[in-house]
Amino acid sequence: MSRLKVLLTGPGGRVGPHILPTFLERYDLTVVDLKPVDGVEATIITDLQDRELLKNAMAGVDVVVHLAATSDEAPFVEQLVPNNVVGMYNVVEACREAGVRRMVFASSVHTVNGRVMTVPIHPSEPPSPITTYGVTKVFGEALGRHYHVKHGLEFIALRIGAFQPYDSPWLAKERGPHNMWLSPRDMCQILTLAVEKEGVGFAVVNATSKPRKEYLSLDEARAVLGYEPVDDASDYYTGPP
């Protein structure tokens, strides 16, 4: 059985180094980043503004995993618009032009962090971003739905909680955000499920590791992708009880 051809954007960011070994082992991988990526021969250098280059890079690709973005609140016109709005559009449109079957989009808890988190929040509930960064992630999800409905692109958005490595001081000292933590191992797991799971046309799912209280419901991730987190933040906590 031939390996899936996958194009990954933004592997030089916080998440990329933790998932690259698995992606290189499982897939015929091409990466797109602002600079060369160690250990990846098929690296394309771009800032996502050249759609023709992106389309050519996607020739024959089965799945695009789109991580590249400005990953927090930033000047809207100068950074968020070119990177998270125009860049997102260019990637989705290049997928359509190149005939890519599926796109996996790194969305964020910032799409709903304006809600009072007293009950599990499901992806079907209305978004409520409190930052313009969150607004750009809502835009990305809506654009993906549009391209699925109009052009048949399979699209899976993962609303990532709070990605932190295992040695993070935040993880060791702070209990409050542990309900949102997504570990490197669980990040890798849910991304590969999103790449490989058959029969998914469009989905938005939450992505966290094992929470003490499930503020972000994992029901959809379990049902759609078969995801079950394996890491628990309490295993890495060294602060007071």
Question: What tags apply to this protein structure?
Answer:
single chain; 241 residues; alpha/beta; two-stranded parallel ribbon
Task: Explain the overall architecture.
The chain is α/β, with parallel strands linked by helices and 241 residues long. It has one domain: 3-Layer(aba) Sandwich (Rossmann fold). The chain is 36% helix and 17% strand. It is built from seven helices and nine strands. It has helices spanning 16-26, 51-57, 76-98, 132-151, 169-173, 184-196, 219-225, and strands at residues 5-9, 28-33, 43-45, 63-66, 102-108, 154-160, 162-163, 181-182, 202-207. The strands form two sheets. Strands 3-2-1-4-5-6-9 form a seven-stranded parallel sheet, with helices on both faces. Strands 7-8 form a two-stranded parallel sheet. α1 packs across α6 (184-196) and α3 (76-98) packs parallel to α4. The radius of gyration is 17 Å and the shape is globular. The model has no long low-confidence stretch (mean pLDDT 94).
Radius of gyration: 17 Å
CATH architecture label: 3-Layer(aba) Sandwich
- The low-confidence runs, each spanning 5 or more residues with pLDDT under 50, are none
Number of helices: 7
User: Judging from the principal axes of the Cα atoms, what is the shape?
Assistant: globular
CATH class, please? Alpha Beta
Strand content: 15-25%
Count of structural domains: 1
